[in-house]
Specification:
With 136 residues, this protein is an alpha/beta fold. The chain contains 5 helices and 4 strands, in the order αβαβαβαβα. The C terminus is likely disordered.
């Protein structure tokens, strides 16, 4: 008679505890762009509350400093996601501050043009899409 494959799986009566363990952010290095306000700030706060090591970036340094003053151990670097070097520096800051590689990068920051999209040259729209897709 063959052995039941489910017999080798760990048994638990608390599926919630198992799910929490599988999704724990404790000690994970997380980089969040666009964290000076709105959704980016909320994500940074939630990840920090979940035990993540948080590194935030945005263009408004005073807002980042205020956020990090509230989130113990969090670090920041003024970052413009339209500049590839800024994004690389933000990741390097996280790795240096926490002594390990980045586990999660959340890009909430965007590039905004204050004009009608139809009036933008195609190469500028492509640049904007690249900034959002790969940080520069």
């Amino acid at each position: 008679m063959s052995e039941d494959p489910s017999a080798k799986r760990p048994k638990t009566t608390d599926s919630g505890a198992m799910a929490a363990a599988a999704t724990s952010m404790e000690g994970k290095v997380c980089v969040i762009t666009g964290a000076s306000s709105g959704i980016g700030e909320a994500i940074a706060r939630a990840l920090h509350a979940a035990g993540a090591l948080v590194c935030v970036g945005a263009r408004r340094e005073e807002k980042l400093a205020a956020l990090c003053a509230e989130l113990e151990g969090a670090v920041y670097l003024p970052t413009d996601v339209a500049k590839r070097a800024d994004v690389h520096a933000l990741v390097a800051k996280a790795e240096e501050a926490f002594g390990k590689g980045v586990h999660l990068l959340v890009n909430v920051a965007g590039v905004m043009y204050f004009t009608c999209v139809a009036l933008r040259p195609l190469h500028m729209l492509c640049c904007s899409a690249c900034c959002r897709r790969r940080g520069g």
